[in-house]
């Protein structure tokens, strides 16, 4: 899922960036500093918390969608990773429509707002190499080493967990544990595989934590093999995020649709 993996090319089953070898000028978002992308996502996410109307969140969501073609995220990856957030947005909108005080307008605003908050973070995570992300967190954002290395480990373990899920599924299928067309048994087998994956992830996390402690992470200053560089494009990205957020509030205020939280 990292930029480096996408540039090198992977198999058809992998979720990668659609970035050619060498990057290419078109996919400029994938080459920016991960710390800048993370800060831009935080600016948009925190800035949208007070606004619950559809216009403010819609402007931000439209702006993020406009830069997606320059991120290198292929359609399959976007569909697989963004699908759960779309479902969350729809369910959030439905709950607000049924039990909220603002009807359909409030439901639409809740759904759009959730997507506008989630999508920038998703783009920042998918377009960033895990190692470069941890370097940027420590060197640029001055995050302590332990949580930064925890982020790196978590991102590196995502493909491993996917492989373990497939292994558990194939192992149970080899033992004849098939649901067939029985939906009740299908749910039971799913939660059984989920519990097995949880056990494996706990074991993997324990071994990883022991290995990190053995390497004295977080016990003192360390040197870094790679320097996390901050370029003009990173500053422009942050400025663009602030301007996009300001544009959303300005447009909704002029249209008279701005609704603030707890107002």
From TrEMBL:
Ranges annotated as spanning the membrane: 38-66, 78-99, 106-126, 236-262
Matching InterPro entries: ABC/ECF_trnsptr_transmembrane (IPR003339)
Membrane topology: Multi-pass membrane protein
Pfam families, per database record: CbiQ (PF02361)
Subcellular location(s) of the protein: Membrane
Domain of life from the UniProt record: Bacteria
Keyword tags: Membrane, Transmembrane, Transmembrane helix
Protein name: Energy-coupling factor transporter transmembrane component T
Species, as recorded: Nocardiopsis codii
């Amino acid at each position: 899922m990292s930029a480096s993996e996408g540039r090198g090319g992977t198999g058809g089953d992998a979720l990668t960036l659609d970035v050619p070898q060498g990057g290419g000028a078109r996919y400029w978002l994938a080459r920016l500093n991960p710390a800048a992308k993370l800060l831009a996502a935080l600016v948009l996410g925190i800035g949208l918390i007070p606004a619950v109307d559809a216009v403010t969140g819609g402007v931000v969501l439209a702006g993020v969608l406009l830069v997606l073609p320059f991120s290198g995220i292929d359609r399959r990856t976007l569909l697989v990773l963004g699908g759960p957030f779309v479902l969350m947005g729809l369910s959030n909108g439905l709950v607000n429509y049924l039990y909220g005080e603002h009807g359909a307008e409030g439901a639409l605003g809740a759904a759009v707002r959730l997507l506008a908050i989630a999508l920038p973070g998703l783009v920042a995570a998918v377009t960033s190499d895990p190692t470069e992300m941890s370097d940027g967190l420590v060197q640029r954002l001055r995050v302590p080493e332990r949580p930064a290395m925890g982020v790196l480990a978590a991102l590196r373990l995502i493909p491993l967990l996917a492989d373990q899920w497939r292994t558990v599924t194939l192992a149970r299928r080899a033992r004849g544990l098939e649901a067939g067309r029985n939906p009740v048994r299908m749910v039971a087998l799913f939660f059984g595989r989920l519990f097995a994956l949880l056990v494996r992830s706990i074991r993997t996390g324990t071994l990883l934590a022991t290995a990190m402690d053995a390497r004295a992470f977080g016990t003192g200053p360390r040197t870094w093999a790679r320097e996390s560089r901050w370029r003009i494009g990173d500053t422009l990205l942050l400025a663009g995020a602030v301007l996009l957020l300001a544009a959303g509030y300005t447009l909704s205020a002029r249209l008279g649709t701005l609704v603030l939280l707890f107002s």
